[in-house]
Amino acid sequence: MKIDCQIEQSALVQKAKDVCESKGTRFTTIREKVFGLLAQTESGVGAYDLLEQLKVTEPNAKPATIYRALDFLSEMGFIHKIESTNAFMLCHHFDHTHPVQLLICDNCGNVNELHSTIISHELNNQAQDLGFTVSRQTIEAHGLCQKCN
């Protein structure tokens, strides 16, 4: 199983590098390391937790280091910010724009990402009825995952 995770992570890193190259941006070593740290978890991770993990290989890393990397990864669509917990998670579907719904387990912290166009369309339709234009959407739902139920 660990080998499969390494293969998947390697494929995700290559996919991210390809996206960066196609957009004329650099996927620096620090950005790649932060991306890799996020790829190793199924839950959201806070910036300072990421910083501590990054310091294992980059002892001089500072908060600004992690925040610059997270800003870049977010701008590229590689990660989602979980607003309710102020954490970040890798998006495995960053090769296209999509609506995002997050199911967040309040017990174990596991996060599942959904892409319901039905929810997205309904939200957009109701917003439009109110004269509101949605530019991006992330819907967060808290509860208990199957393992914790």
Automatic annotation (TrEMBL):
GO BP terms, alphabetized: negative regulation of DNA-templated transcription; regulation of secondary metabolite biosynthetic process
Matches recorded under InterPro entries: FUR, Fur_C, WH-like_DNA-bd_sf, WH_DNA-bd_sf
Keyword Lyase on entry: no
Keywords: Cytoplasm, DNA-binding, Iron, Metal-binding, Repressor, Transcription, Transcription regulation, Zinc
Cofactor(s) this protein cannot do without: Zn(2+)
Taxonomic superkingdom: Bacteria
GO molecular function: DNA-binding transcription factor activity; transcription cis-regulatory region binding; zinc ion binding
One GO cellular component term noted in the UniProt record for this chain: cytosol
Compartments it resides in: Cytoplasm
Cofactor binding: number and manner: Binds 1 zinc ion per subunit.
Binding, Zn(2+): C105, C108, C145, C148
Quaternary structure and interacting proteins, as annotated: Homodimer.
Family statement drawn from the similarity comment of this UniProt entry: Belongs to the Fur family.
Protein name: Ferric uptake regulation protein
Protein's organism: Pseudoalteromonas denitrificans DSM 6059
Lineage: Bacteria, Pseudomonadati, Pseudomonadota, Gammaproteobacteria, Alteromonadales
